[in-house]
Amino acid sequence: MTFNEWALAHEPAVRLSAFLGMFALMALWETAAPRRARLLPRRVRWLPNLGLVVLNSLVLRLVFPLAGVGFALLAADRGWGLLNAFALPFWPAFVVSVIALDFVIYLQHVMFHAVPLLWRLHRVHHADADFDVTTGARFHPIEILLSMLIKFAVIAVLGAPAAAVLVFEVLLNATAMFNHANLHLNVAVDRVLRRILVTPEMHRIHHSMEVVETNSNFGFNLPWWDRLCGTYRDSARLPQESMAIGVKGLTGSDAAVRLTGLLALPFAAAGDGYAIGRTQESTDDAR
Question: Measuring CA to CA, how many Å separate 250 from each of 22, 44, 219, 243?
Answer without folding.
Answer: 29, 16, 24, 16
